[in-house]
Amino acid sequence: MTDPASLERVRAEFLDELARAASDADLRALRDRYLGRKSGVVTSVMKAVAAAPAGDRPALGRLANELKRDIDARIAERREALAALGSAIPRVDVTLPGRQPLTGRCHPLTQMRERIEEIFLRMGYEVVEGPELEDDYHNFEALNMPADHPARDMQDTLYLAAPVVSESHTATVLRTHTSGMQIRYMQAHQPPVRIVSPGRVYRRDNFDLTHTPMFSQVEGLVVGEGVTLGDLKGTLASFARDFFGPDTAVRFRPSFFPYTEPSAELDVSCFQCGGRGCGVCKRTGWLEVLGSGMVHPAVFEAVGYDPERYTGFAFGMGIERVALLKYGVDDIRQFYEGDLRFLEQFPA
Ligand SMILES: [Zn+2]
After folding, report:
1. Model confidence over 128-140: pLDDT tens digits?
2. Which one is the CATH code of 108-343: 3.30.930.10, 1.10.3210.10, 3.40.50.300, 3.40.50.10800?
């Protein structure tokens, strides 16, 4: 009726059940099932040993006793382990105040971009986005920068090791500005045009206090019949007052961009010192905020617009740059380091 192999099977079954025992009650039930005086599994084994042939009895008896002791010891051991685990679980103090769950929010640069977009959306602009991997034509050539144009050196371009072919174009550069999207939009739409185009751009720059090889821009483009420099100035002055505060003064300084003529930089009066001069504005009272100008006729020719009929203006600003100014942050790298102590200072 019994042999060493069947004893081992009993042991294996027991170990299996022991592993699943998770409470004192489980252990008591397990003990009853195996060691119970009347119907315990081991008790029946003992009876079977007593009925075995006399020659097998001593060896079987020894094995059966060993099994019994083993089961007994393992149950005791498990009971202690469960007790230790129970005392390690801290009691819940229901009188403690609840913990405030952490609420996620947008990154400060995203907040800044959305704020800029929102101002232009209110003025009737459309927000459009384009590819970050761009071809030479959209990034340079159509913007009045042919292959030998010296202005290409104004932007340290990051070229791709190999062209990336997609359905729409064969990309060779990481875009140096979002202006490529202006070309794409004009190629696909007839005037009037009123768009802003936000996105990441790339330049071969060092990673330091004021530079990063990747940053973000918002560019804008307006094209129509009779659009003038006065419209450009009015639009940007209105944006500056909305963005930096109602008392913000603006001034335009002549500048140069290959794709606009004339070109101008926009300065706003320093919102820290109100124009008296401080550390933020480097004692000048003015902050340089964006570049702008009237769209160059060569750009209209590149997209098939009649430059005799249409005029327009374009502008572009760095989102990091305005965020640095607006928040008084002195190290641009902090925007990319993901340090929550920094990011938590910008409520949504
Ligand atoms: Zn100032």
Report:
1. 999 999 999 999 9
2. 3.30.930.10
